[in-house]
């Protein structure tokens, strides 16, 4: 389990069980993968530990380049809370967010992001670029990486291997 440090680290909270919520995100990713989407799932939990929103990749199904799991979950959470400010919430996502999603996370003022697998191509929380800690970012958030990393990595690798095999 990798714990990516940010200026503020996020110790395991007694209220928020990182593995429990990541399991739910992993289940959503499975649904997305079975529907032909890159298997990424996301859940948002409020400060009291209540699930308030979920999302799964829907780019192909919705024909929408912004239909990433994180964006869908953020939109749903904002509607649920009747506020665009999600500053008391934690986002759990199975893959490190891309630049678009990292920007949405910052703009939504999420308190914490917990992700599973580093994305070596477009990871924009810590791996390729670091949008939350950038001088251009007007919000700082806590970051935890590596939760259920091997299970999420295996899911992604299996999905991409099956997709490559199907196209041969």
UniProtKB/TrEMBL annotation:
Pfam families: MafB19-deam
Annotated binding of Zn(2+), by residue: 68, 98, 101
EC number, as in UniProt: 3.5.4.33
Reactions mediated catalytically: adenosine(34) in tRNA + H2O + H(+) = inosine(34) in tRNA + NH4(+)
InterPro entries per record: APOBEC/CMP_deaminase_Zn-bd, CMP_dCMP_dom, Cytidine_deaminase-like, MafB19-deam, tRNA_aden_deaminase
GO molecular-function terms, A-Z: tRNA-specific adenosine-34 deaminase activity; zinc ion binding
Record bears the keyword tRNA processing: yes
Residue ranges constituting the CMP/dCMP-type deaminase domain according to the UniProt record: 16-144
PROSITE patterns: CYT_DCMP_DEAMINASES_1, CYT_DCMP_DEAMINASES_2
Active site: 70
Needed co-factor(s): Zn(2+)
Gene3D superfamilies registered for this protein in UniProt: Cytidine Deaminase, domain 2
Keywords from the named record: Hydrolase, Metal-binding, tRNA processing, Zinc
Enzyme class, spelled out: hydrolase
Free-text cofactor note: Binds 1 zinc ion per subunit.
Any GO BP: tRNA wobble adenosine to inosine editing
Family the UniProt entry places it in: Belongs to the cytidine and deoxycytidylate deaminase family. ADAT2 subfamily.
Matching PANTHER family: CYTOSINE DEAMINASE FAMILY MEMBER, TRNA-SPECIFIC ADENOSINE DEAMINASE
Subunit comment: Homodimer.
Role according to the record: Catalyzes the deamination of adenosine to inosine at the wobble position 34 of tRNA(Arg2).
Record HAMAP family: tRNA_aden_deaminase
Protein name, entry field: tRNA-specific adenosine deaminase
Species for this entry: Sphaerospermopsis reniformis
The gene coding this protein: tadA
């Amino acid at each position: 389990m990798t714990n990516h440090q940010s200026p503020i680290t996020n110790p395991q909270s007694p209220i928020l069980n990182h593995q429990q919520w990541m399991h739910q995100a992993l289940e959503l990713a499975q649904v997305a993968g079975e529907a032909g989407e890159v298997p990424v799932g996301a859940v948002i939990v409020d400060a009291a530990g209540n699930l308030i929103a979920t999302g799964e990749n829907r780019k192909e199904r919705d024909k929408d380049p912004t239909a990433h799991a994180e964006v869908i979950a953020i939109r749903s959470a904002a509607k649920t809370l009747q506020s665009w400010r999600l500053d008391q919430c934690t986002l759990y996502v199975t893959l490190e967010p891309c630049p678009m999603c990292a920007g949405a996370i910052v703009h939504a003022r999420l308190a914490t992001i917990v992700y599973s697998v580093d994305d070596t191509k477009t990871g924009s929380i810590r791996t390729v670029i670091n949008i939350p800690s950038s001088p251009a970012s007007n919000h700082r958030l806590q970051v935890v990486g590596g939760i259920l990393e091997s299970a999420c990595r295996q899911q992604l690798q299996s999905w991409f291997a099956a997709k490559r095999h199907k196209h041969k």
